[in-house]
Design a protein that fits this description.
Elements: E1 2-14, E2 25-41, E3 45-50, E4 53-58, H1 59-64, H2 74-86, E5 92-99, H3 109-123, H4 130-141, H5 151-158, E6 161-165, E7 169-172, E8 180-185, H6 192-205, H7 207-229, H8 233-249, H9 255-267, E9 270-274, E10 281-286, H10 291-299, E11 303-308, E12 315-316
Parallel strand pairs: 3-5
Antiparallel strand pairs: 1-2, 1-12, 2-5, 2-6, 3-4, 6-7, 8-10, 8-11, 9-10
Helix pairs in contact: 2-3, 2-4, 3-4, 3-5, 4-5, 6-7, 7-8, 9-10
The chain binds (R)-mevalonate (MEV).
């Protein structure tokens, strides 16, 4: 028996980093996916194959070790361990992970992988409800990213455009029009956990300043919600660029990101980092009138591509 599921990546339109400290964020999932295929094995082993590499563990080590040797594959082994324990099974399982989302560029590949693997592995026993699936995927991801807000994982599982409140969960946002976005990759690979830790150190040194930034971000998010309800792309884009100014002030932008944002702003409604920053990608808001111009402009400097909002979230294939 095989169980196959896929989950989308994401962009953060407003609120990355500040969301870790209680500010709401606006995110959407995008039409780039990660899929996971699981099947039982005759051997008592767990095998994982992905673009990032291969790893395997015996069922005994899965239950008796702390999984630390498995590094970035750790969340996936943890997902298998939990599922086997819950169903009192000791069968071997193989997971194959395939991705349309490059890792380490801020498009939510690790959250999407956790969501897809949680759905696929548990689907070998029983399909989980989305809330239960999100709970387990966040638990797995926090094995390596302890301070994650859970925003990326939630939007990957539920799909669509959402307001994420770290204290009370998410709310879907309905918008009259589909958003058209252009992503440009700085080609500077980042490590989300490292940047989140750096921001924490910055916050501790600059407590009052950081609180002011959180208040400003809170205002920006409120205004962005009004803008999306009125379908005011000019305002929504302007607010994205204002959000970028705050991200610059907390030092998660880079020279290359600043350059890409400047270029994107020449033709689009607005642009900013998406995700942790320190490299990774920028996202710019466009529509049919300026999408091609923005892509042509950014293409001269770097790799870029258009994306749309994905409304399905995780799905079984
Ligand atoms: C990473 O995609 C988003 C951050 O806000 C971290 C988080 O929300 O956990 C930087």
């Amino acid at each position: 028996m095989r169980s196959r599921a896929s989950a989308p990546g994401k962009v953060i339109l407003f609120g990355e980093h500040f969301v870790v400290y209680g500010v709401k964020a606006i995110l959407c999932s995008i039409n780039k996916r990660i899929s996971a295929t699981s099947q039982f094995l005759d051997e008592r082993k767990v095998k994982i194959r992905s673009v990032l590499g291969e790893a395997e563990l015996s069922i005994d080590s899965l239950h008796n070790s702390n999984l630390s040797a498995t590094r970035f594959m750790k969340p996936f082994f943890y997902i298998v361990k939990k599922a086997l324990e819950e169903h009192r099974k000791n069968k071997g399982i193989e997971i194959v992970i395939e991705s349309q989302i490059p890792a380490g560029i801020g498009l939510g590949s690790s959250s999407a992988a956790c969501v897809a693997v949680t759905a696929s592995v548990n689907g070998l026993f029983e399909r989980l409800s989305k809330p239960e699936l999100v709970k387990r995927a966040i638990e797995a991801e926090r094995i390596i990213f302890r301070k994650m807000s859970g925003a990326d994982t939630s939007v990957s599982a539920f799909g669509g455009l959402m307001l994420y409140d770290p204290n009370s969960g998410f709310q879907k946002i309905s918008s009259k029009n589909d958003l058209d976005l252009v992503i440009a990759n700085s080609s500077q690979v980042h490590n989300t956990q490292e940047i989140v830790t750096r921001v924490r150190a910055f916050k501790e040194k600059n407590h009052d300043f950081f609180n002011q930034m959180c208040k400003k971000e809170d205002e920006i998010v409120k205004e962005a919600l009004l803008a999306i309800r009125k379908n005011d792309l000019n305002m929504f884009g302007l607010l994205m660029s204002k959000n970028q100014d705050l991200l610059q002030k907390i030092k998660v932008s880079t020279e290359k990101i600043d350059l890409l944002v400047r270029e994107a702003k020449k033709t689009s409604y607005g642009a900013k980092i998406t995700g942790a920053g320190g490299g990774g990608c920028i996202v710019s808001l466009v529509d049919k009138s300026n999408s091609a111009a923005t892509i042509n402009n950014l293409k001269k400097i770097t790799d870029c591509f258009p994306v749309k909002v994905d409304y399905q979230g995780v799905r079984y294939i």
